[in-house]
C-alpha cells in the first residue's frame, strides 16, 4: 500500500468535511451511497445513511456468499459489511489498516465477526487467529477501499486475493475508478480531494480487468454504478453547497441538523470549497463493481 501511515489516520480526523458528514449521520458506514432518482428528495432530508446501507447490500449481494463460507472483508472500516456477512451465516473476517476503525468494529460487532488490523495488499500469515493460507477462503469482498491502495497496491491486492481464494472462489471489488489516464492532480490542483480521502491516483476502469487477468482471475461481471452513486451524490453535494452559500441556507441546514451550528463562517467556506473540488474530479471518475472469479479449472480470462 502507498503511504500506510498517512492512510492509517484517514476517516478519523477532525477536518471540516468529516465533521459535517458526522452531523449528517455518517457513522458506521463510510461509502458514498446508492441513490435512485425518486429517492433524491428523501436523501436531501434524511441524510446519507439509508443509501449507504443500500450500496453495501448491493455490493455484498454480488458475492453470493452462503452460510458457513469463510469470507474476508478487505478494508472493512468500522465493520458494518463484515457484520452483515456474519449475520448471513458466514464466517467473516474483517481487516483494515486503520486501528481506530478496527477498534470501533470490535466494539460494535465483535460478538459476531472477527476483526484485525492488517494491510490488505500484504496480508499476514494469520489474523484474528484465522490462518490466511493459500486457498483457504471462499470469498473476498472489498467495497470502496482499493482506491486508497495506489496502483502497485491494487496489483498486490488482486494477487493476494487470488492466492487466498479456493478454486472457484470469488472476489467482489467495488471501487472509484477513472475514465481516463489523466493525472488526478490536474483536476485537484490544491489537493483538497486527495488529502481528504488519502489517495494519490485512481485506476482507469478498463485497466482493472487486465490487472485481474494478470493475477489469474476471470472477470464474471462488470457493473457501472456511476450514475446512482457518483452522479446523484454530486447532485446532493451541489444542493448542499448551494444552500450553504447563503446565510438563510445555513440557518435552514442548522434547523435540520443542529450539530452544524458548531461551524463558523470559515468552516462553511472551507466545506463549500472541498465539495466543489469533488465535483471537478467527478467529471472524469466512474464507480465500478467487478465480480472476479478464481477458475476452478485453471482457465483464466474474461467470461463470455
Average per-residue pLDDT, rounded, comes to 90
Secondary structure tally, helices: 12
CATH superfamily: Vaccinia Virus protein VP39
Reading off the top of the CATH hierarchy, the class is best stated as: Alpha Beta
InterPro entries: Methyltransf_25 (IPR041698), Methyltransf_Superfamily (IPR050508), SAM-dependent_MTases_sf (IPR029063)
Domain Methyltransferase: 71-169
Pfam families: Methyltransf_25
Protein name: Methyltransferase domain-containing protein
Topology of this structure?
Elements: H1 4-7, H2 16-23, H3 40-46, H4 49-61, E1 70-74, H5 80-87, E2 91-96, H6 99-109, E3 114-117, E4 126-127, E5 130-131, E6 137-143, H7 151-164, E7 165-178, H8 192-197, H9 207-215, E8 218-224, H10 226-244, H11 247-256, H12 265-282, E9 285-293, E10 301-302
Parallel strand pairs: 1-2, 1-6, 2-3, 6-7, 8-10
Antiparallel strand pairs: 4-5, 7-9, 8-9
Pfam family, one: Methyltransf_25
Domain Methyltransferase: 71-169
Organism: Streptomyces lomondensis
